[in-house]
């Protein structure tokens, strides 16, 4: 009997779903707009409809291991309750897992989107390529997500809230973050932070950045990266700043977890060639564990730090993979 699963990626803009088998990967993709304006119950209804539609595409003799929904946090697990999620206004206290289980006749799983993306990177991405089952993944997007994998499984913490390195201070007296803390990694290394720094430098008189923003008012981190690789020193300084912040954070992760692998994912990771020199400079300076275990040392295992290999489908892939890891 063929076994398959269903993955759902709950985003602030779109709901995406697909079926999955280990042999064929993601199949039968479908996507709808996320009806945030209609409230969480309406979105839960859409998730159920997508799940049922996806299930109906498979042969009746196939067996569904379940559906997993990858959702933004903070998300209390295993209860499946949201706690003031910044990208899902009006969802505070909503118990999505219960809402789905009451409607669906297959096992339902729910986890943080950074967790499931890290799970996919471990089992199907760089972890698989390097034969490693122990990693930390930082996802640099609109915010900064963090997933921790140990022994091939997600580390969730006491309330399911582990993996918030995006809100660890890399500058104790730094900029105020939306979470209420100062100097969080997220205010230095997210796509939003890179744009904010570009705007600040432009206002201070950086000519190329000012010209770019005048021509492209909605310029993104990718646009600033293109300017930086052309040799513009002001644009390069944006990624130096972000790289230092990322390096400080990773140094703390290495000193704390001694992971075999740390991967950087998300849209900002496309700037890896500019980010990585400052990242490794900070690792050498701030992590004696990183220095102690480098290649050539007496230790057989050293921490590898690199860009993630899975792209934009990491969250959807991880959600679809999830029932195969946790549902058997």
Poorly predicted regions: none
β-strand percent reads 15-25%
CATH level-1 class of the largest domain: Alpha Beta
Give the proportion of residues in helices.
40-55%
**Largest sheet entry:** 5 strands, mixed
Gap between N and C termini: 14 Å
Strand arrangement across the biggest beta sheet: 3-2-1-4-7
Total E-strand runs: 12
Give the number of domains. Answer: 2
What is the general shape?
A: globular
CATH fold node name of the largest domain: Nucleotidyltransferase, domain 5
Question: Explain this structure to me?
Answer:
The chain has about 325 residues and is an alpha/beta fold. It folds into two domains: about 5-120 and about 315-325, ATPase, nucleotide binding domain (Nucleotidyltransferase, domain 5); about 130-305, 2-Layer Sandwich (Nucleotidyltransferase, domain 5). It has helices at about 40-55, 95-100, 115-125, 125-130, 185-190, 190-205, 205-215, 220-230, 235-255, 270-285, 290, 315-325; strands at about 5-10, 15-20, 25-35, 65-70, 75, 80, 110, 135-140, 145-150, 155, 260-265, 305. Strands 3-2-1-4-7 form a five-stranded mixed β-sheet, with helices on both faces. β9 (about 145-150) and β10 (about 155) form a beta hairpin. α6 crosses α7 (about 205-215) and α6 runs antiparallel to α9. The longest helix is centred in the C-terminal third of the chain and has 25 residues, at about 235-255. The radius of gyration is 20 Å and the shape is globular. The two termini are about 15 Å apart. The mean pLDDT is about 95.
How do the helices and strands line up, and which of them pair or pack?
Layout: E1 3-10, E2 14-21, E3 25-33, H1 40-56, E4 63-71, E5 75-76, E6 81-82, H2 96-101, E7 108-112, H3 113-124, H4 126-130, E8 135-140, E9 144-150, E10 153-154, H5 186-189, H6 191-203, H7 207-215, H8 221-229, H9 233-257, E11 261-265, H10 272-286, H11 288-292, E12 304-307, H12 314-326
Parallel strand pairs: 1-4, 4-7, 8-11, 11-12
Antiparallel strand pairs: 1-2, 2-3, 5-6, 8-9, 9-10
Helix pairs in contact: 3-12, 6-7, 6-9, 8-9, 9-10
